[in-house]
């Protein structure tokens, strides 16, 4: 592929002395070996804010995570913060995960903030993302950030940016920050030289304050005391969860927690897994093996920045199985809402939130307990946005999403796998006290609300070509939407890009009620649902499937589950996704 003049110009700029020798050497090596595709992918655009902030492969180039792209982002953010809070001292908290370069990048951002007169509260070591969100509120900062690429493979890193309420930035701040970043045309505009007087190292005092809040989330401390020796195997997958998940479980009163030692040391190479993602079975294997060997009751896992929680339980055959994000979110929502109802804590203004690609069982559960529920676009920042919007009018109880994110209470404004681990363990303890496993609790829940079976297919399509292919697939789906799925006619098409819900039976159109996003949903007469959207954090297109079957009793669980799975398989084949 020939390089466009714009790409060539960017490459030439990056080969000037404004960029360090290593950066230049890395680019030169690609130029000399004529790797045009690699050069194009590294330079064809600038890294953009996606679902979870800035995220990209580490390396040289405008479309890569490196000290220059991060430096420009931090400088743009500094400029925007000074515009947004013109007459007050500004401070920002900074955290990072276990990735290679994460500490270095966190220090770089602290230097840039301080050089711009912004007080930087930098954590002394790696920390979970939810603690950063907490720290912003706790320290009264205007902003904050985490250096992390979450659960992405080791080659990636990223920059999650937060506002003064502890939530990741959404419109208009996200686009305004990008505008400021784009105004920086020359890397010499970035103030790399830090002011040590404005950099404060934080650590244990914030941990303690955060853990004290987490402890208050316990609903049934007596049950935990009675089952304190519940066998828990926990893996931080080489990430930051190791800092706070074991202390949080200890605060709740659990005494029998064993770590997966091979994954307990933070390591940016994530040597025992392909991807440090609790969504992936292979990443959970060591923990499951250990749980089996120890005859434990529960497996818990967190991703490198400890905002995603993975759960493993024993099924009715005594085999270890993993819960998906919908199942964990549904169990937690059910546990929390039913406990609030039982103990008289339920208030008329309570609400829960989930995203449009998350299981509708969450809405059914909320409805059952008389709790208001809202749906947002994918991204926990939208859930946090709703908490902010409804502050003072309604009371946020909990929220969750299919991608293993959950948040209980509002002292953190991002998904929190630390508090979620503690509550999942409590749920398992309460179930055990009644002679049941979490798996049985889940089956019982499905007999009450119907069996929801969900599945996800992610197709990876890398680089500029991949991105174009993904756009093409979305376009094709818009032009040729499926007419039926698994034998049931499609009765509604939701296009979140145009903002319209099309009822195909009545011909009516209603607004989606959320901002525009490239998401399509197809709903059938049978109540099944398929959603399609490009990922905002990885080079992937995602297809979400949801099928619902009535479930009269636990005895019918297996055959009903098989039937639902077969239906999903059929839909996947019909849509030619496999
Ligand atoms: O990656 P994380 O854990 O920071 O999580 C972020 O990305 C996930 C995947 O987004 P996408 O489907 O666009 O890739 C979102 O579901 C989540 O709300 C967001 O906080
Ligand atoms: Mg994460």
TrEMBL record:
SUPFAM superfamilies: Phosphoglucomutase, C-terminal domain (SSF55957), Phosphoglucomutase, first 3 domains (SSF53738)
Any Pfam family hit: PGM_PMM_III
Claim: Magnesium is one of the keywords in the record: yes
Chain ranges of the Alpha-D-phosphohexomutase alpha/beta/alpha domain: 48-185, 209-312, 324-446
GO MF terms held by the record: metal ion binding; phosphopentomutase activity
Gene Ontology biological process terms, A to Z: carbohydrate metabolic process; purine ribonucleoside salvage
Keyword annotations of the record: Isomerase, Magnesium, Metal-binding, Phosphoprotein
Name of the protein this chain belongs to: Phospho-sugar mutase
